[in-house]
Amino acid sequence: MDASIIIAGAGPVGTCLAIDAAMRGLDVIIVEPRAASDPPDAKCNTIAARTMETFRRFGIAEEVRAAGLPDTYPTDTIYATSLAGPELTRIVMPARIERSQPGFHDSDWPTPEFMVRESQLWLEPILRKKMMSLTNIRFLPRTEVVGYTQDGDGVTVQCRGLDEDQVFELRGLYLAGCDGGASRVRKTMNVKLSGDAEIARTRTTLVRSQSIRELFGDRRPAWMSWVVNHKVRGNVVAIDGEELWLVHRALSDGEKDFEAIDLEQSIRDVLGVDADFPFEVIRHEDWVGRRLVAESFRDGRVFIAGDAAHLWVPFAGYGMNAGIADAMNLSWVLSAVVNGWADPAMVDAYEAERAPITDQVSRFAMANLEANMAAISGRTVPTFLSAPNFFARLLRRRLGKKLFDINLAQMSPEGLNFGYFYEGSPIIVGDGEKAPAYDMGKHVKSTVPGCRLPHFFVGGTSILDLLGPDYTIIRFDRTVDVSAIVRSGLPVKVVDVDNPPHSAFVHKLLIVRADSHVAWRADALPDDIGQLVDRLRGRTCRDRTTVS
Predict the structure, then answer these.
(1) Ranges assigned E (strand) in 273-383
(2) pLDDT of residue 543
């Protein structure tokens, strides 16, 4: 074998998969069509709290948090008639130096790692540096996967070196396709995408201009500025808070021709400036928003993750972040099998857990988009919306309230970060209690198996920092004997907590996974410890035996 895992695609999803698998001791080869020196994309601009928790485990959270926007630049979202025009509403969120202050919409989130507004332009180099520091990762830039064959022992991956146009083969135990929406791996799997093939069309341009920040005048600047006026609908994202800005412009409903929106004039219409306003176009992309989910995430020893498995409009910033969650789940189950403590069937859990979550998140994003479209896109915007008269101010106030109510959950998505749960997973032991419902903005703390462990501190240390690399048994009563599971061969770490930190903790024992999802709970270990251990090792994945 050339490697335990071969990964197609070195974007954030593939790179995170490589890092995590390598940290778990696996040999990894990652291939990427881009050159090592090619600049990253700038289209992803939010790093979710759960992703930051992953980066905390990677040891790069501080570096990620320090990149991108200046310390003093706010992460507010505004809705306005143009960047320079009157505001309709504002969702106030903290600058980095304000993070410790109370009163923001996410101040009470149950995590030591808060959401970070940062462009992929700055994130990818940090991930790449971490990846290259791991000696058991082999990186092959200017290389693409063109196909594969597999047998009972592994996968033979056909690759092409793009500089020499040379075809060669790699052999691995598993192949992971993290190669984007046009995934060659998915197409070779003969897996189709289903859902909404077209929701919206957008023109996106990365521009350089030091004059754009001046358009905020004496107002608090915004990280994201949504614009609606009688000429254009779009938004502006601050990339460095100084001179780099990403400008999106939406095509009208039903319009197919991207050229129907003039590239440069539409930028001026979003900014609210005239023809002599200075800016430089650095990069441009026309793209189609979709809600598509792969009909399968797996073909034997071959898996897909990220955009290769699901595509949706980037509302709530959960495109890249959902892909990284896929990667962490896949890395864990594959590493468990390769490292020998799990049954090969444990890999069944990847699709069983991630596919339902993918569908849920994509529907949340779709519903938010539809609500926004109903508020501002399904009607003609009056030319006087920016006017300083009473009627215009009244209209702006009413529209602003509607947009605030629709989008607060998107801009502070507590539920998407902490509310989702794995129901019906073959490696999670339910006890009959249903997980509480959640929505984009809210969740209920719960220890129901499948839910995320409610966060708490133990003597000033985050419980996340105390979790083991595979399983952790959290014991709230030191008199309860857990020696049987410690001796079972299951990789489990014992953490004692003297006082339950929240009313959600009603059991004396919790078994928690590395991704902080609860796998089992009770007041004592079962008499038949082997049945529980078999479930957690994936030995009962195929028959879904219930452990009680």
Answers:
(1) 280-294, 298-299, 302-304, 310-311
(2) 55
